[in-house]
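DM from R.C. (forwarded with permission)

"hey, sorry to bug you on a friday — could you get me a structure for this? deadline for the figure draft is monday and I only need the backbone to look sensible"
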Amino acid sequence: MLKLFFRIFLPAMAAIALFETSVQAQEAMRGKSVPSTFEWDSQKESKFSYRLLSMDGKKRDYHVRVGDSFAPIEASTARSFDSIFFSNSPLITFYKKSMDGKDSLYTPVMTINIGADKEDVVICLTERDGSTLHRVIDISQKNLGAGVFAVVNLSKKPFGVAIGNKLLRVEPFETAKQSFPQSDDIEEVPLKFYTLGNYPKLSYERYISFIKSQNLTFYVFDVPSDKDDGNDVPFLMRYGKPPRRK
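My reply, with the result:
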């Protein structure tokens, strides 16, 4: 049955579907940096929040506008969601800073639309053919609420996953999820990963205790493989509520 499922729903592997970032046709503008005492937590009442990841390991430093000033921001190369940033607009423009004598110049590099009503997203950056590309993944409580068991593919290849009895193909930078009736009961969910090819192969299997009044999300950074030492999947697992901006 599983073999038939993947034969029906497993089309030929396509290139990673990443959206190109839009480069602003604007000249550099003069501006000032935020005070040295600036902290992003002071902006947490903003409507939009996001986390910035550099998926290819390249260090990326930008500036973004905060009021009439510019704040430094770094795309994390670590597999961590510790850093969070805030915006009053769903359109976030990233700038490169340079100096003209004593003046600071800020040149727009790209603008990313994280979408309306997105209280928490992950912006994934990577490079292909010399161009910086991005994908936006909604990890807000609205999308991953109580009772949701989710798997987010942050790798560059698709894989198969079974959450309980639900079998899914997960494309790069996409989310597979299954909702359970909300309660304070603990559900023991069988989680299985499959490497894809001519014949899908089970590469990882584990039972996860899941409190259905909360949620559980696996952020998978590499395609699970039965060749991994200790049969471990390189993932970040988060229990409870999704990463929140407050």
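R.C.: lifesaver. The two ends are 44 Å apart (CA to CA).
me: no worries. Helices lie at 2-9.
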